[in-house]
From TrEMBL:
Protein name from the UniProt record: MADS-box transcription factor
Residue ranges constituting the K-box domain according to the UniProt record: 84-174
Cellular localization per UniProt: Nucleus
Lineage of source species: Eukaryota, Viridiplantae, Streptophyta, Embryophyta, Tracheophyta
GO (cellular component) term, any one: nucleus
GO BP terms in the entry: positive regulation of transcription by RNA polymerase II
Domain MADS-box: 1-61
Ranges in a coiled coil: 84-167
One Gene Ontology term of the molecular function aspect: RNA polymerase II transcription regulatory region sequence-specific DNA binding
Keyword Transcription regulation: yes
Keyword Ion transport: no
A Pfam family it matches: SRF-TF
Record InterPro entries: MADS-box/MEF2_TF, MEF2-like_N, TF_Kbox, TF_MADSbox, TF_MADSbox_sf
Length: 232
């Protein structure tokens, strides 16, 4: 069954348009390969899709430079000269822009003002004032950020100081943690024997009040007096 004729016009559906492009591109490249083999022809096809992607087919015995050289020879034109002229024109425009920018910078620094008219000087003053305003705003913003950062650091230090004070107050009754308030097994005494700072911890017998004659410190291996050296 023969296929119906397709009306040649732009395909509105983007997906269908891309599928058609891919199928017909492959068909063209296939025909180009056949021409290259059957007829010993030099064939080149360059295609750019709607998404800007480049597809090309060049006969294996041909390179891109040779193709353009033969194209120029066949049409008797010079593609490279025209391209070079375009590049020179673009370079000249860029140099003019660079020259104008350098001159504007010198004028903002107070130089090269002799050639300016009164109107141009007025515009320059307004531009400088606007630039100074933006610079001041940026400067004040930076200073404000630095002040806020400093305030945060101060608040952190104050919080650490308050915590330390609370910790010191909590240790006022038992600064060295030697007294067991719950068990009631130890009493502690702070002394400085032999000229050095020491902590003397004495164990007492809960039944001492029943044996008054035992109210003395014993020496030897079973001594109830323990001495701890303070950390310096």
């Amino acid at each position: 069954m023969a296929r119906g004729k397709i009306q040649i016009k732009r395909i509105e559906n983007q997906t269908n348009r891309q599928v058609t492009y891919s199928k017909r591109r492959n068909g063209l490249f296939k025909k180009a390969r056949e021409l290259t083999v059957l007829c010993d022809a030099k064939v080149s096809i360059i295609m750019i899709s709607m998404s800007g992607k480049l597809h090309e087919y060049i006969s294996p015995s041909l390179c891109t430079k040779q193709l353009f050289d033969q194209y120029q020879k066949a049409l008797n034109i010079d593609l490279w000269s025209s391209h070079y002229e375009q590049m020179q024109d673009q370079l000249k425009k860029l140099r003019d822009v660079n020259r104008a920018l350098r001159k504007e910078i010198r004028q903002r620094m107070g130089e090269s003002l002799n050639d300016l008219s009164l109107e141009q000087l007025t515009e320059l003053i307004e531009d400088v004032d606007s630039s100074l305003k933006l610079i001041r705003e940026r400067k004040y913003k930076v200073i404000s950020n630095q002040i806020e950062t400093h305030k945060k650091k101060v608040r952190n230090v104050e919080e650490i100081h308050r915590n330390l004070l609370l910790e010191c107050e909590a240790r006022q009754e038992d600064p060295y943690g030697l007294v067991d308030h719950e068990g009631g097994d130890y009493n502690s005494v702070l002394g400085f024997p032999n000229g050095g700072p020491r902590i003397l911890a004495m164990r007492y017998d809960p039944d001492q009040h029943h044996h008054p004659h035992h109210n003395h410190l014993q020496s030897g291996g079973g001594s109830d007096l323990t001495t701890f050296t303070l950390l310096e």
